[in-house]
Model the fold of this input.
Amino acid sequence: MLQASKVFPFSSNYLPSRNIQTMTTAASKDVEMSITPSSCLHDEPVQIRVEGLLPNQDVTLYSSMKDTRNVQYISTAHYRADSNGKVDVDTMESLGGSYTGHFPMGLIGTLHPAPSEYKFTRFFKRDVVNPNIVELSVYDGHLTEEEVCAPECKKALDSTMHERHYMGPGVQRIPVRYGKVRGTLFLPAGEGPFPGVVDMFGTAGGLLEYRSAQLASRGIAALSLAFFAYDDLPKTLEEFNISYFEEAVEFLLKHEKIMKPHVGAVGVSKGGDLVLSLATYIPEVKAGVWINGCNSNVQSALKLRDSVLPGLEFDFGKIEIVNGSMDCFEILHNPLDYPETIIPIEKADADFLFLVGNGDRNWKSVMYCDQAIERLKKAGRKNYEVHSYELAGHLIEPPYSPFCLSSYHKLISGPILWGGVSKPHICAQEEAWETMIAFLFKNLTNMRGKL
Done:
């Protein structure tokens, strides 16, 4: 469980951006639902309690949140009050609903599309400046999702609101158009200088900012970097040029608030192999965080200074359909069969952190990580850490991002299976986030003693 004031350089100490208390409405003057803190950073845990119930009363706790597209995500949990008429999610077990057992952040982490929404969708947050607003309610009895969401559902015993912020107080969001580079820079509060990273996602393209915003909230300046399907960049995954990423690193190191002379890189999926390439071919990149990526350059050729690194290709004929989603686990060719595509990370003057979900169904992240480590071992290198997570899927996000088993992917024009099991996946995200931030501070600063 994250404890921000102990793990990170500073805690959020958030004040609500609105009067949360005035948003609380009680259907029963005796029942009170509370969430503490009422406003916090998105990677922070909360305490959820209900008081004023009857002894041993069965209740349903309900949470709801909408994303940028106005898609509604919900979660339910069944609890039984103690002999004093209290429910404490921190210490008690859920008896049913979206999760069972002891899971203090279950109502946030298991948020998923409401029954009325398209089920193969992923929580999408475009506006990171404004917080996510979570509505929490308590209902009498153990209700199904359909019963809670029905128009004729009985009135909640009590409701309250909660804010979850991506940007901590004083964090700056700066749109970037530097030469060919397109993205957004997030700077932590204060004078700096701060460790800097290039932050990248995968084949969905566009620009995703939520991880960079949260890194900056924890003291790491992050350039959320688009590399296709954004602004005037190529619309599809065409040939990449290492010069584009060199220009992004140059931008970071020219900024007065970025710690010199090195930066790091963070990437998931296709962004993972880009991390390996940046660390291998750009000397200023000294720390690479690989999240469920590949050890080969995937799909699109990467043009280097005097050569080209070919792309490892897919065999889409190997797609299988599982519960309406495309299981792509087998479609990427084995890098060992195409050694010319493998990124020679043994030549990198950098440290690597490999974060691996053992339940990844997007592709064989475990195998790709093993192949990468074997290559480093053969070269006598010890510049790596590996953290594997049982039953964690492909999308290892910052903590308490809603778990997504499968969602629509425009590259294959259909829902793709990401894998994982909600509770262990959400717990993995907590540990992976702490590990990543500690790794970046260790390798990019002299702040070891502050963690």
The CA atoms of residues 99 and 106 lie 7 Å apart.
